Each structure stands twice: as C-alpha cells, then as structure tokens.
Amino acid sequence: MGPDPAVAAVRLAVRRALADLPPGVMVLAACSGGADSLALAGALAFEAPRQGRPAGGITIDHGLQDGSDERADAVVRTMAGLGLDPSGSVAVTVDGTGGPENAARDARYTALDQTAVRLEATAVLLGHTMDDQAETVLLGLARGSGARSLSGMPTAFRRRSATGEGPEGHGGQGVLYMRPLLGLDRATTRRACEAMGLEPWDDPHNTDPAYARVRVRHEALPALEKALGPGVAQALARTARMLRDDADALDELAVRAYADLQATQDGYTVALRLEGLADLPRAVRTRVLRTAAIDAGSPPGTLAAVHVDAVDRLVTAWHGQRHVDLPGGLRAVRRYAKLLFGPV
C-alpha cells in the first residue's frame, strides 16, 4: 500500500524540483513550522536520500512573539527528527523599512542567504502553495502594479542583493530558491502533515486582520468563491503562470532595447538615445525607463509607476518640461536628443 495521496503529491512535487539540481548538492528546506513548510520538510527528508543528496533544514526566529525562541527550537527538533541534517535556527532582528511584513521578509531572506552560503547549499526550498500564489495575485491587482506583479511568485529564482550582486560563495549568481508546492493547495499540505504524523504550528499572525494578506485569505478569497463558485484560487494561479510567460518575454525585449539605446553620459549616470526609444511599444519602453532609473540609483522599492509614467512623458509627450524628480535624490532630464538620469 502506497503513501497517503496528499503525502504522495507533496513528495512528487519535491522530487521534480530536486531533479533539476546537479547530483549530490546540498539542499535546505526553509521551515516555519506551519503546515506548508512542514510538509515540504517531510517530503525533502524522504526524497533527498533516495537521490543521494544531503538535505538540511533551517527555521528563522523573527523574535516578533513571546516564546519565539522556544518555537524555533521545537521546529529544529522536528526537522532533525525527520532526518534533515544539519537542522538549525537563526534569530534575526526585524527593523527594516517598508512596513513589518517587508522588514520581516528582508530579514528572513538575508538570513537564508547567509545560511545557504555557510553550509554550501545550492538551493533553498520554500513552502509557498497555490493559495499563496492566488493571494499574491489579488494583492498585486489591488496595488495596480502591472503584469509583473500579477504574474505572482516564480517557481524558482535567484535572489540578488541591493547592489545587484549575488551572495558571496555562489559565484555572484545568488542563492537559488525553489517553490515546489505552487501547484498544490494548502489543504493538501495540511492533510500531508496529518498523514505523516506531523503537528503544524499555526502562526497567530496568519489570522491577524491587520495584515492585508490575512484579509485577502479570510475575507476576499472566500467572498470570490461564494460569488463566482469554486476554483478561484486555481484560476488566479493559472493566470499568474500565463502572465509570467508574457512578462518574461517583455523583460527580455527590454533588456535588449536598453543595451541598444545606451548613449554617452555627459556627466550623468545613465543616458539613453531618444531616437528609437519613443518607437518602442509602451510595455517595453516603460521597462527600459524603469531599468535606467534603477541603474542610476533610484531604489526599486520606492520607484513607482507614477514616476515611470512621468519619465515616459518626457519621451512621448514632451512640451518643454525640464525634468522629473525620482526617488533617491535623482532626476531624469531630456537634453540633446538624450534622456539623462543622475543625481539632483
């Protein structure tokens, strides 16, 4: 008799992710102790030895709740009991900008980066599910953030630092993060934990309506299911996958155009030739302008669509306006058939 269907589904998803990695390399599971990441850790502990590769587990103690250190210790014991070796926790300080969710995310990924480099792990597996993907798409839709935001979370990515460099020890490419469970729903991971005899921890932050994602999870998605019928999460995840393909293609075109439009900088940080820039499709042109602003030093987290649209008007609707101010103390200026980006 085979494993429970939910366990089999999670194991298959992890097996497929591991198959994309070189033989014998170390893989880590990032585990909070919740059902999604706990099921992921259990599947990794089962599959990695069968592929002859070492596998460990890491949990991050954000220090945001009383007893978080004890909770982290319990997660470490669970991961070690599954056979993940090494298993450990890292305590972080959440004090960044951009709100508590962004600050916690930045602190968490920095700790995961550093741990992966220290343990010489090639990849870190994350436990995001189809439900997380659907929530991400709805949040992006509410922000009006464009196709890239609506394309949701990628199945795999390499995280880059603020300077564009990968963490030391990975050849400058960044740590590889993989999300094997994006094709599975949250109910499946919870059933898998039950079948494996694992007791998930339910983070109280996941029911706190102060967080936008929690309101989407417990209010918006159920309301959509009630109004439109079942399958909304699956449809949103499917839409994200298709939009990601489109966004990837547009990004590639923008990279080529950006390289072709480079001009002498005339004392500025970045310069683009106006000839050819205005002729680009808007979806490509605005990507080029955003890249130029970021390369000039504008922080990606604060550079918004309204800024890019204002710069775009210097290209397509210029009536003598002198410049556009950008986050980070920068300015975009139209001068001498060029679009120039640099400090104020």
TrEMBL record:
<protein>
    <recommendedName>
        <fullName>tRNA(Ile)-lysidine synthase</fullName>
        <ecNumber>6.3.4.19</ecNumber>
    </recommendedName>
</protein>
<feature type="domain" description="tRNA(Ile)-lysidine synthase substrate-binding">
    <location>
        <begin position="272"/>
        <end position="338"/>
    </location>
</feature>
<comment type="function">
    <text>Ligates lysine onto the cytidine present at position 34 of the AUA codon-specific tRNA(Ile) that contains the anticodon CAU, in an ATP-dependent manner. Cytidine is converted to lysidine, thus changing the amino acid specificity of the tRNA from methionine to isoleucine.</text>
</comment>
<feature type="binding site">
    <location>
        <begin position="32"/>
        <end position="37"/>
    </location>
    <ligand>
        <name>ATP</name>
    </ligand>
</feature>
<keyword id="KW-0067">ATP-binding</keyword>
<keyword id="KW-0436">Ligase</keyword>
<dbReference type="GO" id="GO:0032267">
    <property type="term" value="F:tRNA(Ile)-lysidine synthase activity"/>
</dbReference>
<dbReference type="InterPro" id="IPR015262">
    <property type="entry name" value="tRNA_Ile_lys_synt_subst-bd"/>
</dbReference>
<dbReference type="GO" id="GO:0005737">
    <property type="term" value="C:cytoplasm"/>
</dbReference>
<dbReference type="Pfam" id="PF01171">
    <property type="entry name" value="ATP_bind_3"/>
</dbReference>
<dbReference type="Pfam" id="PF09179">
    <property type="entry name" value="TilS"/>
</dbReference>
<keyword id="KW-0819">tRNA processing</keyword>
<dbReference type="InterPro" id="IPR012094">
    <property type="entry name" value="tRNA_Ile_lys_synt"/>
</dbReference>
<dbReference type="GO" id="GO:0005524">
    <property type="term" value="F:ATP binding"/>
</dbReference>
<dbReference type="InterPro" id="IPR011063">
    <property type="entry name" value="TilS/TtcA_N"/>
</dbReference>
<dbReference type="InterPro" id="IPR012795">
    <property type="entry name" value="tRNA_Ile_lys_synt_N"/>
</dbReference>
<dbReference type="InterPro" id="IPR014729">
    <property type="entry name" value="Rossmann-like_a/b/a_fold"/>
</dbReference>
<feature type="domain" description="tRNA(Ile)-lysidine/2-thiocytidine synthase N-terminal">
    <location>
        <begin position="27"/>
        <end position="219"/>
    </location>
</feature>
<keyword id="KW-0963">Cytoplasm</keyword>
<dbReference type="GO" id="GO:0006400">
    <property type="term" value="P:tRNA modification"/>
</dbReference>
<keyword id="KW-0547">Nucleotide-binding</keyword>
<comment type="similarity">
    <text>Belongs to the tRNA(Ile)-lysidine synthase family.</text>
</comment>
